[in-house]
Amino acid sequence: MNDLTGLEINPVSKAAVSGLIVNYLSKTKSIFPWKVIGLDAPPRMKTSFTVSLDDTDKMYDSIASSPYPIIKIKLGSPDDEKLILRLSEISGKVFRIDANGGWQPDMAERMVYLLNRLDVQLIEQPTDLKYIRDWKYIKDHSKASLILDEGLSTLDDYRNYSDYIDGVNIKMAKSGGITEAVRIARQVRRDKLKVMLGCMVESSVALSQAVYMASLADYLDFDGPLLLKSMIAGGIDFNLENVYVDEDIIGGPKIKKEFLDARTR
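RESULT FIELD:
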């Protein structure tokens, strides 16, 4: 597995190769995939659910009516303050904020001041990476953890930015798969910072490596499969925010018969 770190292909393709190898070894050895990497079994897993940028009223209604208790809210528009002020009207939700680098440092300070009044767990990427040095001041005034997302692909990236952050969001499609992702997560934990595991809009097949290393995480953002029309594979299952693995996960998620049959039509 370690030989993959030098494979000169894009990280998405590398992640796919990594997943194939882990699942192949899991199947041939008849062991759970996380044991291939030497990890503990995934603990009880709960994911956030994302509400994307939209009209303020639509976003508010989506958040308030969502059956999911942990909501990740995409921000980064001129109407952010208006929405944040309304979030205090919503009870029974835990909020996670993702600005996707959409704030200037002065705006980030203002938003953090407002968000400190709410039950906010974390704030992802408050500014563009070029303002990373400003994060040290921002995080000292934020009750929520500041999480690095954009700009994190390798362990070296983490080491470059670790002084300015409270934690990282690791994604397989950016790290190139579970080998580098585990290296990052273990170092972050040694440094006593926070590990978030995230995903793109992707199936449970692509998500599987992140599930395998869930024992290393403080926060999970595994809603990619929930944003698709159908669950194409079994082995990783969802019941609202709860994520489960079952015995079928040995050898990796299994594509459901109806989707395999559809390829032959």
